[in-house]
Write a structure and sequence with these properties.
The complex is a heterodimer. By secondary structure, chain A is an all-alpha fold. Chain A has 16 helices and 2 strands. The radius of gyration of chain A is 25 Å and the shape is globular. Chain B contains 10 helices and 10 strands. In chain B, the strands form 2 sheets. In chain B, strands 6-7-8-3-9-10 form a 6-stranded mixed sheet, sandwiched between helices. Classes of the chains: A mainly alpha, B alpha/beta. At the A-B interface, helix 9 and helix 10 of A face helix 2, helix 3, helix 5, helix 6 and helix 7 of B.
Chain lengths: 393, 238
């Protein structure tokens, strides 16, 4: 399949956003809250998809970047509210601050990441997320210590207060931000930067020889990923009206990475599946646990823990059975469907799909052999062009 | 010495292990210079030193009259120097077209890049047929063409090639070397060719340099080198 043009992807994204916003009118407020949370996680998972999937840089510090976004949001929102600012400014400026705060941290990490690979980079980013509680405790006067910060948020616009619930409004905001992140990341990955990123991941020496500055590419990828995670953190802070170290632990980092892998590492659409699983799987498992005919003690032990076990089991199964994740499975199924029912043939009549294949017709993909007079060992090809036969080595 | 590329008394190596010992050579503009020698002679190290992947411990390298010292690898292509590395260095996850575009990525002039891309497809017909195929699906010959095409997308003045015949059938090697000769004659491209296939290399080259244990033992016209029986027997093995 050909990649989507920026305009088509933009239209699709707008349609998806409109559909999701429409969905909030038919679901209960709690579902809208879950949707808002999923969109916040989607920003972070999508950033991780760019960084780890396309860039090949394993990061365990995505939660730290979300925390940077959340605290930036909290500090700026509280400062603005303290100064008497209201309205759109109290919403947009903190969201911008969440992107900026995380991006600055991303630049710093990226500078170090340019010199680190694989497990060393993972260890470095792991240290960041582990350090969050210590940082909030050390600067407890500003960051609120273990309790974190309560945030004064701008509620839904006055004009909407009669018709739209607060959860619905939160979902709208999160949907718009998540869709914007997906559009930006998609355009980056499809374009010049995406080629540079994949070239550096695959062979940074060859990329350098082509004029690509590998170190700068890595720093930019970390910064973009951090900006996305920061926006996710800012959205989560807005939705929960708090920023605390417990919400951005190592467990969240691992969940984000697992979500990216389960969804399909390297695929932005896979990030959507991953974010949805992050929010709705624990809810589904906990609901199932609550309805089990077991004692209260057993139910209490299962609550929360079973979700982690199920998540881990799914991760193992995906790695073993579908290394390209859920999106890989969907893509493969689509490919099989198209092969079985080529365009113009109805799926309702599969027999028509069986057509005789000419045995002697050369494939368009396979270069024909013998179309050029053989050159002597040192001779110049007659036309000054090259042709070869596939498989000659 | 004069020439597009000049090396004077260059010594280089890997950490404490010296490989090149006072190498001096000159590559004339618009010519093909073949650097030949046995395994371990320092041929690849020579290219890595020119391109900036290794810093010389001593000596001077200039390109078009200006020193190359301190130029980063990624900026060499902007100065007009492109390298096709040993093993080809195709980005296997990118398609043929993406690989080619990568070669011209540093250019801001999209129209010029598009023209060059079309020219590459003219030069390398099999690549035109497989433009959407990922690099890992290509044959060895096609990968070599792609690596060469990607380097040429930078429209370099000096092309450095490291063992282009490695793992290729003689007919493909001959075609690639023939194409290099045509490019030199038609466009004025300068080529520094590292090659173990000495006969083929000297047959298309204007000049030849024989390296042995990191030192230049002969630097003459390619025809003279090919005709020197003693030198061939002693250093080149044929």
């Amino acid at each position: 399949m050909r990649p989507l043009t920026p305009l088509v992807s933009l239209l699709l994204a707008a349609a998806a956003a409109a559909a999701l916003i429409g969905l909030t009118f038919v679901v209960e407020p709690f579902r809208s809250y879950q949707l808002a949370t999923a969109c916040a996680y989607l920003c972070a998972v999508a950033g991780l998809t760019l960084l780890t999937g396309a860039g090949g840089q394993l990061s365990l510090g995505q939660a730290a970047l979300m925390a940077a976004g959340a605290y930036s949001y909290a500090l700026s929102a509280n400062a603005l509210a303290g100064a008497g600012v209201e309205g759109a400014l109290l919403l947009l400026v903190p969201l911008g601050a969440s992107i900026l705060g995380a991006s600055i941290l991303g630049v710093v990490i990226g500078c170090a990441a340019g010199r680190l690979h694989g497990p060393y980079l993972a260890g470095f980013t792991l240290a960041l997320v582990v350090a969050i509680p210590a940082v909030t405790s050390t600067f407890s006067a500003v960051l609120g210590g273990d309790q974190g910060l309560w945030i004064t948020v701008e509620k839904r616009p006055t004009a909407l207060r009669g018709t739209v619930s607060n959860e619905q409004w939160q979902a709208w905001l999160a949907i718009i931000c998540a869709v914007a992140v997906m559009v930006v990341l998609n355009n980056l990955l499809r374009g010049r930067f995406g080629r540079q990123l994949r070239a550096v991941r695959d062979n940074d020496a060859a990329a350098s020889l082509s004029g690509v500055n590998a170190a700068r590419t890595k720093i930019i990828s970390f910064t973009v990923s951090a900006a996305a995670a920061g926006l996710g953190g800012g959205l989560l802070a807005y939705v929960t009206q708090s920023a605390s170290p417990g919400a951005y632990s190592l467990v969240l980092s691992l969940y984000l990475l697992m979500a990216a892998v389960i969804g399909g590492i390297g695929s932005l659409t896979g990030a959507v599946w991953g974010a949805l699983i992050m929010v709705f799987l624990p809810y589904a498992v906990n609901t199932f646990t609550a309805n089990l005919p077991v004692s209260a003690d057993v139910a209490a032990r299962l609550d929360g823990n079973l979700a982690v076990a199920v998540f881990g089991t799914i991760l193992v199964l995906v790695i073993l059975l579908a290394p390209r994740g859920i999106q890989g499975l969907i893509t493969a199924a689509g490919r099989r469907f198209r092969a079985r029912f080529p365009p113009g043939q109805s799926p309702s009549n599969p027999a028509s799909a069986v057509v005789p294949v000419p045995q002697s017709r050369p494939s368009a993909e396979t270069p024909s052999s013998g179309t050029q007079a053989p050159a002597t060992e040192t001779g110049t090809p007659p036309s000054g062009t090259l042709s070869t036969t596939k498989g000659q080595r | 010495m004069s020439g597009l590329l000049v090396m004077e008394s260059v010594s280089a190596g890997y950490g404490p292990v010296p490989v090149l010992h006072g190498v001096s050579l000159s590559v004339a503009a618009g010519s093909i210079t073949a650097v030949v020698g046995a395994n371990g002679a320092g041929k690849t190290t020579l290219l890595r030193t020119i391109i900036g992947q290794l810093q010389p411990a001593a000596g001077y390298i200039s390109f078009d009259g200006a020193a190359l010292a301190g130029t980063k690898v990624e900026n060499m292509v902007r100065r007009g120097i492109a390298l096709v590395p040993e093993g080809r260095g195709v980005i296997t996850e990118l398609t043929v077209e993406e690989n080619l575009r990568l070669g011209g990525l540093w250019r801001r002039d999209r129209a010029a890049a598009a023209t060059l891309l079309a020219r590459m497809y003219e030069l390398f017909e099999p690549l035109a047929r497989r433009r959407r195929a990922p690099g890992h699906q290509l044959s060895g010959g096609e990968r070599q063409m792609l690596a060469l095409g990607r380097a040429l997308m930078a429209n370099p003045r000096l092309l450095l090639l490291d063992e282009p015949s490695l793992g290729l059938a003689p007919r493909i090697t001959a075609q690639i070397l023939g194409l290099l000769r045509t490019l030199c004659d038609d466009t004025g491209l300068t080529v520094l060719l590292i090659e173990q296939n000495v006969r083929s290399a000297l047959s298309v080259a204007d000049d030849g340099v024989v390296l042995n244990l990191g030192s230049v033992v002969a630097a003459r016209s390619a025809a003279d080198l090919a005709a020197d029986t003693d030198l061939r027997h002693t250093y080149l093995g044929f």
